[in-house]
């Protein structure tokens, strides 16, 4: 694929958002890709090794010389006051889990760190909650075993949209159709971002007791019934060293899946599986970022597609000459994107509240409010394109926002999330959309995608500005530790985001209407990561120290 997008223009725009002169991108402290990524690991603190790779030597952006000292025996010093990971005496690994672990940091160690526990939310008053409790801040652990609730109405069923032929697979209509096993119901399995196959409505079977799950699993209560999830413990009593049997998450596609374990799943990146490669501040192994997801309790939340027209803008791509198969593929593609854009509205709404709680400058709040309006417009445009290609109206169903604001997060978690979602994810998304616009030949699609690319570039710049502002408000030790974590996050996301398995060649008809192939997207992401994201991350965080590069 011959790339049409000017990566240097994206790089200069984002460097400008950081207040960095474009000339610095070629003078040393901020690296251009003309000499490749290999030089990243041999520059130490920005010394003479950098000049051999064309990077210059100054290392001027390392604000505290870099290795990030730990806070004695009490864990890392926190961005927001208490202890980075629990507090107390830090009796595991020199500081990961601290004593009673009150409400200090991203991970509060042990059941004694659970403030104001309540039964797992979701059931009706008096419903059994499986023995699970939720702490203030959102952590879920399990002091004892018990049965879960079940809310399955045999006569009820999902709202199945009337979408274009081939874009919906219907295996059931009502819950009563699902009687082969206990606790059956008819549910939706919608695959976003061009996943394998169409939206599917099929029977699913849940649980109300651990005995109905396999080895290494427990029954986690939920709606309309519990589900079996991976578990390395059953109750708090299975755990030693003051840990509790608590809910964590492992990567699953573009989202995540719950797993119960005694304490954190990871302490370092090496503890995570190859498809993750990054250990987050909350002790979870993180997977690839797919755009800007709306995360609730660690899982990406999307609405299901529905038959409605009020979310569609009136757009008119030229569909004459397109085969039925091509139109279905484009309808699915733009429905997928529209649902992600719709979820991004909620993500920016929540982010605006978080900014206010952190005392952020008015400029950041204003830009976030504008981004929310942008995402609303993007969703309407993409639903409009989906309807135009599919021949039927399509829009979003209800978006599950339960618990979206109930779980508090530390400043460190917010910085990590913004870095991954905006600095990395939205930068790549903006470049992909720009390339799609340049290669599109349909005039309506080209114009619409060009506008979206401009908006997404501003959103990426907003992410860089927020992280810069947040880092400036930390002490030296915390800034060094966060910087190291963000560099590790960049490495892990880079590997995951460019790991594309689909090798099908590009379809000229799809490209003409703004849909790149997986192979083209991978090549573009690889170039964007090294030519755009890496230099901007270096301007934001400073050159890697020897400890980071090790």
In short:
By secondary structure, the protein is of the alpha+beta class. The protein is 35% helix and 10% strand.
Write the layout of secondary structure elements.
Elements lengths: L6 H11 L31 H4 L65 E2 L13 E2 L5 E2 L26 E3 L13 E6 L9 E7 L11 E4 L6 E5 L13 E8 L2 E8 L32 E2 L2 E2 L4 E2 L17 H35 L3 H29 L4 E2 L14 H29 L3 H30 L3 H22 L10 H5 L5 H24 L4 H4 L1
Parallel strand pairs: 4-6, 8-10
Antiparallel strand pairs: 1-2, 2-3, 5-6, 7-8, 9-10, 11-12, 13-14
Helix pairs in contact: 1-6, 1-9, 3-4, 4-6, 5-6, 5-7, 5-9, 7-9
Search tags:
alpha+beta, four-stranded mixed beta sheet, 550 residues, disordered C terminus, three-stranded antiparallel beta sheet
Provide structural commentary.
- This protein has 550 residues and is of the alpha+beta class.
- The chain has 10 helices and 14 strands.
- The protein has a 4-stranded mixed β-sheet, with no helix packed on it.
- The two termini are 34 Å apart.
- Residues 23-112, 190-198, 498-503 and 546-550 have low confidence and may be disordered.
Mean pLDDT: 74
Radius of gyration: 24 Å
The number of distinct helices, counting runs of at least 4 residues, comes to: 10
Tell me the number of strands: 14
Shape descriptor reads globular
- Category by helix and strand content: alpha+beta
Low-confidence spans: 23-112, 190-198, 498-503, 546-550
| Helix content estimate | 25-40%
Strand content is 5-15%
Distance between the termini: 34 Å
Order of strands in the sheet with the most strands?
A: 7-8-10-9
Largest sheet: 4 strands, mixed
- SSE topology string: HHEEEEEEEEEEEEEHHEHHHHHH
